[in-house]
């Protein structure tokens, strides 16, 4: 099967890593590295000038770090932003969440398995080309609806579970069958997106629900989720919580 060439910008301070990455990716025959940068400012300028399909971005950079690079790109006015995969040794959950919140599509920990990286890149572009403009707008609407509901119950943004939940709700709102298979389908999908593990994602979501019940807007929480709260458990399960939010998102989009 013939694939269109993926135009790539590499951003990393380590020239040896960039060389290794370039050789490995271009050996597939469908990758072309069109630019390289070792600092954040150069990276932003290269992306704006070359408009690549994909940016492979190290998080720790001089001048502008990875989060700042993403912020500049989000505010650049580009008609079509490139897909961004963060590649880093940084595994701190708060930083991973920040990078994902700023617009990265995937976060992969170094050392990177090249075959898996190539597959992630191809999957991202395939997803982008098979979605119509309407469906992409619908994805954005789902994310906005989910974020609005989480804001209403005052779920803290500082917790990683917030970002996992927002993405989970968007996925389930688009495919309700995911609710039947949280452990075998939904959590692994979130793991691939955020570079985490299913266990950590499950725990983070549960923790965010508990924190929100204790310190969020109790009235709004019980108005939205009261019917799902088992008196013996005292809180909704992850599945129940995601199901309710996904249904509100689906209803909200129909009404809107």
Quick summary:
This protein is an alpha/beta fold and 256 residues long.
Explain what you see:
The radius of gyration is 19 Å and the shape is elongated. It starts with 5 loop residues before the first strand and ends with a helix. It has 2 domains: 6-130, Response regulator (Rossmann fold, 3-Layer(aba) Sandwich); 133-255, Winged helix-like DNA-binding domain superfamily/Winged helix DNA-binding domain (Arc Repressor Mutant, subunit A, Orthogonal Bundle). The model is unreliable at 130-137 (pLDDT under 50). A 5-stranded parallel β-sheet has the order 2-1-3-4-5, sandwiched between helices. The chain is an alpha/beta fold and 256 residues long. The chain has helices spanning 15-26, 40-50, 66-74, 93-101, 114-130, 133-152, 160-174, 182-194, 198-215, 218-225, 238-255; strands at residues 6-11, 31-37, 54-57, 83-88, 106-109. The longest helix is centred in the middle third of the chain and has 20 residues, at 133-152.
Query: Rounded to an integer, what's the Rg over CA atoms?
Result: 19 Å
- Form type: elongated
Overall tally of structural domains = 2
How much helical structure, as a percent, in the residues? 55-70%
Which CATH architecture of the largest domain?
A: 3-Layer(aba) Sandwich
Q: Which quaternary structure do these chains form?
A: single chain
In whole angstroms, the N-to-C terminal distance is 41 Å
Number of strands: 5
Q: What is the string of helix and strand elements?
A: EHEHEHEHEHHHHHHH
* CATH third-level topology of the largest domain: Rossmann fold
Most strands sheet: 5 strands, parallel
Low-confidence stretches: 130-137
- Record the strand order, biggest sheet: 2-1-3-4-5
Q: How many helical stretches? A: 11
Mean pLDDT: 85
CATH H-tier superfamily of the largest domain: Response regulator
CATH class of the largest domain: Alpha Beta
Strand content: 5-15%
Report the structural category: alpha/beta
């Amino acid at each position: 099967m013939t694939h269109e060439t993926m135009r790539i910008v590499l951003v990393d301070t380590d020239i040896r890593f960039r060389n290794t990455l370039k050789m490995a990716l271009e050996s597939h025959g469908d990758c072309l590295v069109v630019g390289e940068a070792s600092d954040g400012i150069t990276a932003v300028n290269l992306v704006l000038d070359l408009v690549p399909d994909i940016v492979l971005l190290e998080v720790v950079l001089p001048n502008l770090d990875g989060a700042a690079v993403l912020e500049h790109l989000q505010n650049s006015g580009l008609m079509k932003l490139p897909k961004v995969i963060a590649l880093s040794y940084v595994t701190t959950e708060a930083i991973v969440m920040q990078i994902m919140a700023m617009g990265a599509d995937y976060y992969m920990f170094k050392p990177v398995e090249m075959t898996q990286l190539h597959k992630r890149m191809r999957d991202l572009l395939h997803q982008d080309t098979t979605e119509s403009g309407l469906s992409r707008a619908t994805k954005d609407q789902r994310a906005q609806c989910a974020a609005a509901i989480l804001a209403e119950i005052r779920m803290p943004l500082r917790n990683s579970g917030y970002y996992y939940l927002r993405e989970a709700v968007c996925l389930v709102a688009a495919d309700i069958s995911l609710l039947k298979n949280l452990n075998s389908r939904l959590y692994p999908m979130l793991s691939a997106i955020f570079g985490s593990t299913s266990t950590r994602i499950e725990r983070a979501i549960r923790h965010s629900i508990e924190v929100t019940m204790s310190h969020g807007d109790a009235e709004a929480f019980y108005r939205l989720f009261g019917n799902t709260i088992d008196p013996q458990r005292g809180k909704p399960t992850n599945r129940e919580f995601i199901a309710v939010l996904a249904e509100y998102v689906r209803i909200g989009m129909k009404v809107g």
